[in-house]
Amino acid sequence: MSAQVINGKEITGAYRAQIKEDVAKLAQQGVQPGLAVIIVGEDPASQVYVRNKAKACEEAGMYSEVHRLEAGVSEKEVLALIEKLNQSPKIHGILVQSPLPKHISEDKVVEAIAVEKDADCFHPVNVGNLMIGKEGPAPCTPAGVIAILKHIGVELAGKHAVVIGRSNIVGKPMAILLLREHATVTICHSKTANMAEITSQADILIAAVGKPRMIRKEHVKPGAIVIDVGINRLDTGKLAGDVDFDDVLDTASYITPVPGCVGPMTITILLKNTLDAASRSLKAQVNG
Ligand SMILES: Nc1nc(=O)c2c([nH]1)NC[C@@H]1CN(c3ccc(C(=O)N[C@@H](CCC(=O)O)C(=O)O)cc3)C=[N+]21
Question: In which pathway does it act (predicted)?
Answer without folding.
Answer: One-carbon metabolism; tetrahydrofolate interconversion
